[in-house]
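Why does residue order matter? Because the sequence determines the fold. Keep that principle in mind as you read this record.
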Amino acid sequence: MSDLLLLHNPRCSKSRGALEILQQHNIEPTIVRYLDEPLDAKAIAALLIKLGISPRELLRTGEEAYKNLNLADPSVSDAALIAAMTEHPKLIERPIFIAGDRAVIGRPPERVLELLA
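Structure:
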């Protein structure tokens, strides 16, 4: 299988767990440290299609930026949510395993195996 990527934050236990599970299955994805290399709006929009979710479902609601930017307000548009994620990549849920045109959020980490079947 080609085009295997893991949007990874090495400080996150769930992200480390997902990588470990993949490695146990002899999968070595390309690691994208999205906090160091933030995704642009186009990449986030493409990711949302692969995940099959809305921008709101990709947000980490416990982050300070979520509260400070008032992103809980239902009137905030999808475009504004995506813009917030480009400016504050910590808002993006993690880890995300991408296999070609499909992706899954690794919460719990074992969910990454869904794309290997």
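Helices lie at 13-24, 41-51, 64-68, 78-87.
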